[in-house]
Amino acid sequence: MPEIYDNIDRNLCEGLKTVLAGARAASVCTGYFHLHGWDLLAPYVEGFVGDTEASSCRILVGMQRPAEEEVRAQESLLRSPVPSDGPTRALLTRKITEGFKKQIEFGLPSDDAESTLRRLAEQLRAGKVRVKLYLRHPLHAKLYLVERPDPVTPLVGFVGSSNLTRPGLTGQGELNVDVVDQDAARKLQSWFEERWNDQLAVDVSAELATVIEQSWVYQELVRPFLIYLKIAYHLCEEAREGERALKLPRQLQGVLLDFQQSAVALAIQHLHRHRGVLLGDVVGLGKTLMATAIAKVMQEDSSTTTLVICPPKLQLIWQRHLEEYEVTGKTLSLGMVDKELPNLRGYRLVIIDESHDLRNREGERYRAIAKYIDEYDPYVVLVTATPYNKQFTDISNQLRLFVDEDRDLHVRPERFFQEWARQGKRADDFVARFQTSTNSLRVFEHSAHPEDWRDLMRLFLVRRTRGFIMDEYAKYDPERKRYYVTLNGKPHYFPRREPERVGFPINENDPNDQYARLFRDEVVEVIENLSLPRYGMAQYLVAGLEKKASGDEKRILDNLNRAGRRLIGFCRTNLFQTPGIKRLQLPPVARPPHHPQPGDALRAGERPSDPHRDAGGGAAGRGGERR
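Request: output the structure for the sequence above.
Response:
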């Protein structure tokens, strides 16, 4: 009578171990093969010679498919004449092994998993384990055959429901029986051999070993620089995908520079993922044009209409941009939002220029805009070159316009919680105290660590400096000694800033020379003796307070001590050593009539004749408008 192995009364894994002890070969047909469960049988396979298939453990996997839908789509082809060309076989093999790769990457690495996977790779390389994938049709059979030097039962089989996985070998809910009758066992072996030798049974032993060796279980040390490159590659994956997917409307083709297209693509990725983005390139790179391009692309893709909220002095510029690039929308002065927004219909995209003016969420303008966004749930584009002024909440208050304060951002301020832990507190304590997730915007507002805020802003910010653009996108003209980018084959040069010194005479003996009087010793003495109580608050601290202060509090007190001295030094420097006093040093009547003005010096006589001259709209920073 056959024995029943249901993993309750009798465990199939223990039954296999019993017959594998001293065995010389094994054959397995399984629907699924999970690599992490190989440790259950690996020690018993170690004794196999492996020089031929007859002295190895053969595993035929019937349901392991890489991109399942693709294999199913090819099922009709695979049931008919076999595709004999090498590229097709190679493609199928490569895609199928991706399933094993995902198995390895799943879950947390452990010493046991590392040991199991390394041993499996070694056994694959030694021929002790051979793996084939059966591609003719889905095969869900489960069969285990063990050949052993036993004169009575040299061949023992197990048939049932257990896959070659840890749950299948040890978990409940299975039903298997052993087959010791030699005639029945040989018939099962004949059935296995027919499928093992099928021309659509593809050997992936070498590929599987390579997948393991190139995973986290790799034994040789990897150079830190290569790890850095891989991290950088994955961090910029969203930007790369956005650039490939971006299709510029007709009105914008041949208009945007390369670095502007990259910003537009990444910003649209952020919009679709988070419904908002902060476009924060530094002054002069063309943020107005880029935000207009975002509006136009969104209009083409999603039929959005655009509302631009901006300071009154920029309203005409924005109106020109909307008209020139055929963006359906309206401009609204920031000063009128509390009066006009309640009466406006719902626009699907809201652009807020100079969004740093909305750092205070208690203001009437802020509340009016926040209420409008909350009511109509539009996409939001914040445009500012200075998102951060005095405190980190300057940033979070702007983000709050489109990010719910308790929304799970899937990132948390790690440095803050490290500091929290040093105080003997846990993350659960924070949740209980503030009633919010540890991954919310509210928790970031408790962090004073710049690294935490950088982690947060990676989700929402598009920001490049002029130096970054010159390094990554521009070329250098050695003759003109200037960097340039090209648009439609024409170069557009970055301005070269070269401050010039303008001297003028000072007569110390003339009591009517106001500039001579300004540089007298008495003036220096007055500056040095300034009290500046607002910037010298350390003078008013309670005596002995520093002894009771914590580490962070001592750092604050030390900054208070230095603030006043820094300001006095700054005053002296501005007065005597920097170009900042130029306006005081040079009265209008003393300026040579044809001396270059600062704007002329930046452009060296090349006033832009189109929206992109000087790489993004000139030094004024309203990227794209004509001057």
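The CA atoms of residues 148 and 463 lie 68 Å apart.
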